[in-house]
Specification:
This protein is of the alpha+beta class. The chain has a domain of about 40 residues. It contains 1 helix and 3 strands. The chain has a 3-stranded antiparallel β-sheet with strand order 1-2-3, with no helix packed on it. The chain is elongated and about 65 Å long. The chain starts with 9 loop residues before the first strand and ends in a 7-residue tail after the last helix.
């Protein structure tokens, strides 16, 4: 996988997707790369829901403290 980096800043000239661009960050740093998306948003997740994880806390309390894991 090639190195990917998201940079927040301002492109120094008009560009189209795929063009080589120079971005100036708010701190004045200059970064160079290819424009792949305009104003991208983060689209990450922690994966699919795993129902077994719901039981881990209950089981752990039972192991550590014995007896009913729902004691308060």
């Amino acid at each position: 996988v090639p190195l990917e980096m998201w940079v927040k800043g301002f492109i120094d000239r008009d560009a189209a997707i795929g063009d080589a661009v120079e971005v100036t960050t708010i701190t004045g740093r200059k970064e160079f790369g290819s424009l792949t998306e305009v104003e991208p948003t983060y689209r990450h997740s922690f994966g699919n829901f795993v129902p077994e994880i719901l039981e881990i806390g209950i089981q752990l309390k039972g192991i550590l403290f014995g007896g009913d894991a729902d004691e308060r």
